[in-house]
Design goal:
By secondary structure, the protein is an alpha+beta fold. Helix 2 runs parallel beside helix 6, helix 4 packs across helix 6 and helix 5 runs antiparallel to helix 6. The chain starts with 13 loop residues before the first strand and ends with a helix.
Length: 227
């Protein structure tokens, strides 16, 4: 996809958007999705027919809104910044769902929501503030990789988890930071802060700080005596 999206002119002015609380897509990250609501099945069909296969992932502003599952009229307010992803794999199931993979391309700012006649929502998108997203590895040299690995080891140990350290060692700084942010257990607001981070190192520091707070809370809970 690197050759397909080299400049901002390669990106569309309008995007269908999928509001999904707690879901984080970052440039070159991979996000699996299970699509079952009729309006979002229509969105996927339209994206596939358009040829560019792009969908904008955005988060509702209200933590409880999620994406209005089961309510075809739900239209929660959304954050101003999202990330466009390209459908890079999809499979239709026997019960009418679509299992698909979105690969992150570039973040965008919502200029306005369009008065669309489609069952899914559409926005006019401005990719300009995030032009560096199109350059793979932008800001990698500034990443505190040792700091991230240190907190990762401590977090895994505290929670009795394991990791594929060979794969981690082979990962680039960008892939490591973004993948850990995407799979992290933190809430929608924290995920939005990671999305909006100005640089890769800024995103890395947000992740480290959140993990430090989670560890501190775990230690506090462990030290609380039983009543």
């Amino acid at each position: 996809m690197a050759s397909r999206y080299q400049t901002l002119t390669d990106l569309p002015a309008t995007l269908p958007v999928f509001p999904l609380g707690g879901a984080l897509l970052l440039p070159r990250g991979v996000l699996p999705l299970n699509i079952f609501e009729p309006r979002y099945l229509a969105m996927v069909d339209a994206a596939l027919r358009s040829g560019d296969r792009l969908i904008g992932m955005v988060q509702p502003k209200s933590p409880g809104a999620m994406f209005g599952e089961g309510d075809a009229s739900a239209s929660p307010d959304i954050h101003d910044v999202g990330c466009a992803g390209r459908i890079t794999a999809f499979n239709e199931t026997d019960d009418g769902r679509i299992l698909m993979t979105l690969t992150g391309i570039c973040r965008f700012r919502v200029v306005e929501e369009l008065n669309a006649v489609t069952p899914f929502r559409q926005v006019r998108a401005d990719f300009t503030p995030f032009a560096n997203d199109l350059a793979a590895g932008s800001g990698e040299l500034d990443v505190d990789r040792d700091g991230l690995l240190n907190i990762l080891r401590r977090y895994l140990d505290a929670n009795g988890l394991q990791a594929d350290w060979d794969a981690i060692d082979r990962s680039s700084n960008e892939a490591l930071v973004n993948s850990l942010c995407m799979i992290s257990p933190f809430g929608p607001q924290e995920k939005q802060a990671m999305l909006e981070a100005e640089t890769l190192e800024h995103r890395n520091q947000i992740l480290i700080a959140l993990a430090e707070m989670a560890l501190a809370q775990t230690q506090t809970d462990d030290e609380t005596p039983l009543q």
